Amino acid sequence: MHEIAKRLNDNIQKVNPSVYDMLSEIGRDIYMPEGIVTQGNEAKQKATKFNATIGIATANKRPMYLKSIYSNFAGFTPEEVFPYANTPGVADLRTLWKEKIYKEGPTLNGAQLSNPIVTSALTHGISLLSEMFCDRGDYVVLPDMFWENYTLTFAVKLKANLVTYKTFDEDNKLFNVKGLLEETTKAVASKGKAIVILNFPNNPSGYTPSVKEMQEISDGLAEIANGGGKILVIIDDAYFGLFFTDHCAKESMFSYLAKRSPNLLAVKLDGITKEGFAWGLRVGFMTFAQTCDNDEQMLLSTLEAKVTGLIRATVSNSPHPSQSAVLHALKSPDFEKEREACNQIIKERALMIDNMFKAGKYDDEFIPYPFNSGYFMCVKLKNCNSEELRTLLLNNYQIGVISTSTTDIRVAFSSVDIEHIEELYDTIYKACKEIK
Ligand SMILES: Cc1ncc(COP(=O)(O)O)c(C=O)c1O
After folding, report:
1. 147 in ligand 1 pocket by Cβ < 6 Å?
2. Residue owning the nearest CA to atom 3 of ligand 1
3. Average pLDDT over residues 259-280
4. 194-215 per-position pLDDT tens digit
5. Is residue 271 within 6 Å of ligand 1 at its C-beta?
6. What are the φ and ψ backbone dihedral angles of 77, each rounded to 5 degrees?
7. 217 pLDDT band (50/70/90 cuts)?
8. How far is the CA of 329 from the centre of ligand 1 (A)?
9. Taking the C-alpha atoms of 123, 105, 24 and 308 in order, what is their torsion angle to the nearest 10 degrees?
10. Which atom of ligand 1 is the closest one to the Cα of 271?
């Protein structure tokens, strides 16, 4: 093992040995070399005369560039576009995102957080965490309605055991907190550790729990952790902010899990993908929360250093122009207003769908699962197979939906204008009748 990795591991063990136990083999071995990148960063600060460290080309101390590329970036300086961004991201962007997390998470109550690390959007963040914390055979606990990409990351790539619980309770109304806690308890009993993924608003169901449910989840997981189980909780906040009803909590689950137990490490993944309606920019963030009452800056910065090493080993750094664009947007007085306006358009569609179902229009063919947030909702079919329905809709009506299980289909109302919503559901209903 490299000396730097040993030093980082010592730091973690000194502050919180439980977090050390959660690391995978890669997580223990990884480190950020103090080589070219670190020496280059030092030179950036001090080498005011000649900086012959950096692996880019400059002329007159400015990055060289092609006009045919730069002409596409009106409003940006060449420095904001062409040089490599720092491996963990543009410093000012990280600072502003951290302020945003605190502002949107009053329940954090000043808990210490790592500096958010910039990732090439959330998928990259999930992949980094899987490598840092998951070894072959580790348990990943998920609701049975989950984003399918977790399967590739954890099960296919890393050979983890994905264990699921029913997403909703027996009345099909609320999140199945009991199921989550039972599966986590079993995972911890078998391996001593568990990786729990919580994604609200949820893809595919479109459900966000209430504050009460979030508190129950937090209390339950803290109890398992305080009993000795080591739990990494990954909070996938891809759809954060798209909350449509009074029922759903308006804060991230992250707020309720910070500082609950030395054995519980909460990490938030979020980004501009859906929050900023900028799917292709590929800007995400990974932020670790304080695990207990001791001063933990050392632990948080050591985790940051390890993740930075992993980024260096994979994509080296995330695209600079995208980070600059997000930085400009976060500084803009219009960012929040514009985001809210887009959210409102999606909310109106969701409320319309809710009203149609409340009127019982489609009850004899399909009923909705609880939904109150996000991009999607799912229906449970009563009389036909979802794949048969999906292909019929596609071939006869040129309508695309996703079949998520033999009985369920997912509808992305995020991408259907409100004037077509009723026709969409009426056609799904008609197609169900045809199959019967
Ligand atoms: C639950 C969930 N997490 C993460 C992602 C991926 O986000 P990104 O495009 O930022 O990688 C998605 C995208 O569909 C998602 O539904």
Report:
1. yes
2. 238
3. 97
4. 999 999 999 999 999 999 999 9
5. yes
6. -80, 160
7. very high
8. 21
9. 70
10. 10
